[in-house]
Fold this protein.
Amino acid sequence: MIRSVITGTGSALPVRRVSNAELAETVDTSDDWIVERTGIRFRHLAGPDETTGTLAADAARRALAAAGCAAGEIDLIVLATATPDQTFPATATKVQALLGIDDCVAFDVAAVCSGFLYALQVADSMIRTGAHARALVIGAETFSRILDWQDRTTCVLFGDGAGAIVIEARDSGEEGPGIIAIKLHADGRHNQLLYVDGGPSTTGTVGLLRMKGGEVFRHAVTNLAAVLEETLVIAGLTSADIDWVVPHQANKRILDATARKLGLPAEKVIVTVDQHANTSAASVPLALDVAIRDQRIMPGQLIVLEAMGGGFTWGAAVVRT
Ligand code: UT7
C-alpha cells in the first residue's frame, strides 16, 4: 500500500517576538483580556527582510535536514498561504529558487487557515498517483502585513511564521506510517465573516483582514468537532485511538471546546497558540514541528491534524507518524 509518509518537519519564526503588554502600548487592549479570551501571550512579527517566502524556505531547509533529504530530491512543492510575497508568481517558486531546486512542480494553495490541510490533500493525492516521489508541503504566512493595527478585535490575534514537512511515497503496509485519511470542506456562504477587504481583481489593493469573531468562533467549534469525527470514521478509528491532536491554533477556548465535544483529554492537545498566536496556514505544521522536536509526538503514534478558516474552509487528517 503506497502512502505518503512524513519523513521530516521544520519551522521558522520571525526574529521579533512581541508580548501582549508591548501591543497594549499602541492598541487599546490588555494582557489580561488577550490571555483570558484567547490564551495568546506572544506572537512573532516579520521584519522588513522577512517574508512569507523567506520564512517558508527556512522552515523547508529544516524539514529537509530532519528528513535527511537533499533539496534536489524534492519533485513537488505545495505551499499554502493567504499572504504570498507577490500576487504572482507563486511563493512556492520563490522557495524553490531559494532552495536551489532547478526543476520540480511548485504552486500555491489558498484556503487561509485550512490551507495546510488542503495542501496536504493535494500533495498526498499527487504522490499516491505515482507522479511524484517526494514533496515539500509548507504553510507560511505574514498576516502582520494585512492586519488593521487600529482594530483591536483582530490585530492582537495573529502572528507570522512557517511550518514545513517532507512527505515521501512509501510502501508502508496497513499498520505502517503515513497519511491515513483526509477530509476537507468549504462553505462559501460564510465568506463575509472572515475576509480581506481588497484584492487584485476588486480594489486593486492588498486590503486588510476583517472578521466577525463571535460568529467564526461558533462555526469553528461545530465544524471542527464534526470533521474530526468524520475523518476518524473514514480511518476506521475512534477518538480513543488518537495519541495527539494537532489543531489549528486560533484560540485556546476553541481548542478546549472542540476537545471536550469529542471527549478528548486536554493533555492530548498540542497547544502553541500562547507562543505564536494564530499563524493561519502555518499554525498546524508549526505546532507539529514543535511537538515532534520536543519529543511529545513519537514515531508510530496516531495523530489528527485539523483546521478551520476563512471561506469557510475546514478539514482534518489522520496520520500515523
Ligand atoms: O483562524 C480562523 C479562525 N478564527 C477564529 O477562530 C477566531 C474566532 N473568534 C475568536 O477567537 C473570538 O471570538 C475573539 C477572540 C475574536 C473575540 O472573543 P469574544 O469573547 O468573542 O469577545 P467579543 O468579540 O464578544 O468582545 C467582547 C468585548 C467587546 O466589548 P463590549 O462590546 O462587550 O464592550 C469588545 O469590544 O471585548 C472587547 N474587545 C477587546 N477588549 C480588549 C475585543 N477585542 C478586544 C481587545 N482588547 N483586543
In short: The longest strand covers residues 160-171. The pocket of oxa(dethia)-CoA is lined by residues 29, 33-34, 37-38, 113, 152-153, 156-157, 213-214, 216-217, 220, 250-251, 254, 278, 308-309 (CB under 6 Å). The first helix runs from residue 20 to 23. The domain at 2-171 is CATH 3.40.47.10 (Peroxisomal Thiolase; Chain A, domain 1).
